[in-house]
Write a structure and sequence with these properties.
alpha+beta; Alpha-Beta Plaits; 7 helices; 4 strands; 39% helix; binds 2'-deoxyadenosine-5'-diphosphate; binds magnesium ion; ATP-binding; EC 2.7.4.6
């Protein structure tokens, strides 16, 4: 498997509860390297552009309002098979379905406030990394 990069977001429910370090430890323990990271505050418009694929879903308004409700930590994770590995460490979207030991099983509050985002495929990873970072900000 090749070295990959994926876009991760530590969401407002997690930054609010001071879980950035605990979540980063899960990534690092799984062999993922944090090669870029910044704490930012999204507007609802920016959150809507990021989650554009979900614009027609019934939860879109709730999702963008939540993502703009507090600071987020956006980051690029690098490693062997990083996209799938990150999804594994995150756990299922709904924390009640997430496997034991995953970030969402341990920390998520609900299906909406589920602590982390991770890209789901190579093409989306590339687009999502470019949404937040310039090449100069990523140091492998
Ligand atoms: P994931 O974040 O696991 O990739 P997704 O892409 O299907 O999940 O959805 C993006 C986010 O939208 C998800 O992390 C939380 C929110 N969401 C998804 N399904 C939802 C639902 N049924 N109710 C409320 N929010 C939901
Ligand atoms: Mg998704």
């Amino acid at each position: 498997m090749a070295t990959e990069r994926t876009l991760s977001i530590i969401k407002p429910d997690a930054t609010k509860r001071n879980l950035t370090g605990a979540i980063n430890k899960k990534f690092e323990d799984a062999g993922l390297r944090i090669v870029a990271q910044k704490r930012i505050r999204l507007t609802e418009e920016q959150a809507g552009r990021f989650y554009d694929v979900h614009r027609e879903r019934p939860f879109f308004g709730e999702l963008t309002e939540f993502m703009a409700s507090g600071p987020v930590v956006v980051q690029v994770l690098e490693g062997e098979g990083a996209i799938a590995k990150n999804r594994e460490v995150m756990g299922a979207t709904n924390p009640s379905d997430a496997a034991e030991g995953t970030i969402r099983a341990e920390f998520a509050e609900s299906v909406g406030e589920n602590s982390v985002h991770g890209s789901d495929a190579p093409e989306t990873a590339k687009e999502e990394i470019a949404f937040f970072f310039s090449g100069l900000e990523i140091v492998g």
